[in-house]
Every structure is written in structure tokens, then in C-alpha cells.
Amino acid sequence: AQKITQTQPGMFVQEKEAVTLDCTYDTSDQSYGLFWYKQPSSGEMIFLIYQGSYDEQNATEGRYSLNFQKARKSANLVISASQLGDSAMYFCAMSSASNTGKLIFGQGTTLQVKP
Amino acid sequence: NAGVTQTPKFQVLKTGQSMTLQCAQDMNHNSMYWYRQDPGMGLRLIYYSASEGTTDKGEVPNGYNVSRLNKREFSLRLESAAPSQTSVYFCASRQNRQLNTEAFFGQGTRLTVV
Asked: Cα(A45)–Cα(A34) distance, rounded to whole angstroms?
């Protein structure tokens, strides 16, 4: 069975500093995709970044990058130069080849950016 | 450019009442999903539909039924609501089952069962 684990319920970071949000996953598939979503206090779900299991380079999207360590089954989100607007809940998610399109989410990490 | 539209946004039910949460997408997506979000539990998949005419159970299907009415619409029904079903419900859609397609979410339905 596929599983996503986010072990940090809450994190604090100082404005303008970088922060890493942890995500580990469990799957026996060789082909899978990993996603990060942001949920501000307003409640909407915002897609941030995607990493494929066969991608040779770590994904980057502006201030977001994904530290993908396949052997360790981790896909940590790195936010550089944190801004107050980054305060939100962040979810890691996975879709794998054998689960016919299911998209499974972790428990989420709440990030608070301090001025 | 509506994307994924859920109705209603808020609902209060009494224990034992039934209701249907509606979801429609205008992006011509094949796959649609229903999740519930509870504090500390993240988003848990209730049901999903990989394509029109197909539905499959997710992680927490008990107490729910779904209908993929057509390609656009995917409804979630609570036949006899229980307080444990108090939650925020999200509908989502994806272009297809390919691994690199992200999901687009509705604004959520906040359901309270008293």
C-alpha cells in the first residue's frame, strides 16, 4: 500500500530564511509522482511543485525546490527566502503507477513565518 | 474560468439526515476525487473516479456513496449522516491518471453534523 508521512505537525521560520518541510513515502512501485500543495488559511489548495520518480534532477519552481532522495524515499520541500505569505499548511502527495490514479496525501505541516 | 465548483459551501445536518454534495469541473478532466480533511489527519481519499462511468473506493469510503453522473459531475452522498462525518470535504479533478498531472481542487464544503 502507498503511504505518505509528514512528521512535522508545525514549523516556524524567520522571514527571509530558508525552511525544509519533510516528506517520506512508501511504495513498491518504480514509477510514481510526488506533489506538494499549499493551503493558506483561506482554505484553497494550491499546487506548488511536482517530481517524477524517473526525473534525474530535483524539481524547482521559483522559491520552491524539491530535495528528492529516491533511495531514502524522501521528497522534502525547500522554501527559500521565506515570506509572510508562505504561512500556511503544506501537504505532500503521491500518485503511483499501480494505484490506478489515486492521489494520496500526508497529514500536512503547518508553517508559520515570523517577521 | 470556474475550474472545480462545489456546492454547498456550508451545511449543517442533523444526525440521520441525508444530503448530496455536488461537484462539477469545466476543464474536461477525466479523473475526479472526493477527500475529507480533518485536523491532524490531512486529506483522506473517500472515493475517486478514474473516468466517466467508473468509481472506486479510497481510504475512508464507509458511510458514503458516489455517482459520476457524466464527465463533468461527481457527487458525494451521505445516506445517514453521523457526527463523525463532520469535516471539510474537497472535490478535485485531474486531466488523467498520468503521474505528472496535478489535481485542481474546489473551494471545499464545511459540513457539521449535530
From this structure: 16
B56 touches chain A (CB under 8 A): yes
User: What 3-state DSSP class applies to B10?
Assistant: strand
Could you give the angle at the alpha carbon of B9 between the alpha carbons of B5 and B13, nearest 5°?
130
Chain B residues touching A52 at Cβ < 8 A: 99-100
For a pLDDT cut of 90, what percent of chain A falls above it?
A: 86
Q: Is the dihedral of CA A22, B42, B69, B65 positive or negative?
A: positive
* Predicted pLDDT of residue A80: 96
Q: Quote the pLDDT of residue A2.
A: 86
pLDDT digits (tens, 9 = 90+) for A7-42: 999 999 999 999 999 999 999 999 999 999 999 999
Cβ–Cβ contact B87 with A under 8 A: no
Torsion angles phi and psi, residue B72, rounded to 5:
-80, -35
Burial of A21 (0-12, 13-18, 19+ CB in 10 A): buried
Locate the chain B residue with the closest alpha carbon to A52: B100
**Is residue B94 less than 8 Å (CB to CB) from chain A?**
yes
Nearest CA to A78 out of A65, A94, A59, A62 is that of A65
**For the segment B24-66, what is each residue's pLDDT rounded down to a tens digit?**
999 999 999 999 999 888 999 999 998 888 999 999 999 999 9
